Amino acid sequence: MRLPIKLNEAGWPARFSRLSFAFHDPRPLAGNGAGLSQQAFSDAISTMQFGVTFKTTRPGRQQHSNRFVRDLLRGSKPAILDVGASDGSTSLDLIRTLDGDFRRYYVTDLNLSARCGLDRGGIHYFLDNDGNCVLRASKRFIVYSEVNGAILPLRVLAQALISGHRRASQWREVVLIQPELIGLARSDPRVSIMRYDMFTPWKGEIPGLIKIANLLNGKYFSPAQMSQALRVQCSNLAENGFLLLVSEDDEVEKFSVFRKSRGAMQLEHTHAGGAKAAHLVPSQIDLPDVNAA
Predict the structure, then answer these.
(1) Structural domain spans, the chain
(2) Which residues pair with residue 113 across a beta bridge?
(3) Per CATH, the architecture of 64-110+197-292 is what?
(4) Which of 80, 199, 209, 289 stands the most exposed, by the fewest C-beta atoms within 10 Å?
């Protein structure tokens, strides 16, 4: 990240929020979203970065693909694997649109929680699943540990500030999933929230629909990495199942839908030019696939 030190918009006049380096305040996540609206929770989540990937999300952003999937799957009740669902806002949207017309819905992401601690100055630190500090948040500034591409003074300063997590205490687990989705998973046994890495074979029920939205992004992954992930996901998919890829440009929703037939991936539908990673979907899947193992 070329600029690993950002403004926390909570500590500056409202006009500063329009700046590209002013980010939402992640500190309310320390309370596990208590009292936050769905939008406010997603705003706070969107500031979190794990590795090179931001958890940018918001509800209501995939209405076109949701309606298409509802019509495509009507009456078929498949198992659905939602890959890289971030805080689950868009999963909630699709679940509501389907109105119960699914057998199982797996909401998955590689980072479902983080550890949050405070130092004596009230500064928040967030750790990933491996115990590495990924973010430092004070009232006025947000500091990231990902400093690749930053000029030397900023890199050194960011690393020094991040190291302050060693003095923090009051550590607690912070769940990075929408509270409403957690409640739904508790009340509806068909909905599961699971940690999953898209580069590994899926071990659960074979999905009839796999959705990957705004994750296969050239800012995060190389073409080779995205191709690898797509090969894995196409192998995960049931015969005659559908792969849905969604991406956005300037808030324009674009998506592509592929059907798996006899080990081949066939393009079924595109919207607004299709998803950015659609050209990386393999035309042929090696057989036998991972689900036969």
Answers:
(1) 5-55+115-175, 64-110+197-292
(2) 175
(3) 3-Layer(aba) Sandwich (3.40)
(4) 199
Reported pTM = 0.93
CA distances from 110 to 225, 275, 289 (A): 16, 22, 23
CA 212 to each of CA 67, 170, 233, 286: distance values in angstroms, whole numbers, following the listed order: 16, 36, 9, 21
- Going by the DSSP 8-state scheme, the letter that residue 284 receives in this structure is B
Treating both helix axes as pointing N-terminal to C-terminal, what angle do 38-45 and 89-98 enclose, rounded to 10 degrees?
140
| Nearest CA among 112, 62, 50, 51 for reference residue 87 | 112
Between CA 99 and CA 105, with CA 101 as vertex, the angle to 5 degrees is 95
pLDDT in tens, the chain (293 residues): 999 999 999 999 999 999 999 999 999 999 888 889 999 999 999 999 999 899 988 888 999 999 999 999 999 999 999 999 999 999 999 999 999 999 999 999 999 999 999 999 999 999 999 999 999 999 999 999 999 999 999 999 999 999 999 999 999 999 999 999 999 999 999 999 999 999 999 999 999 999 999 999 998 999 999 999 999 999 999 999 999 999 998 789 999 999 999 989 999 999 999 999 999 999 998 654 444 43
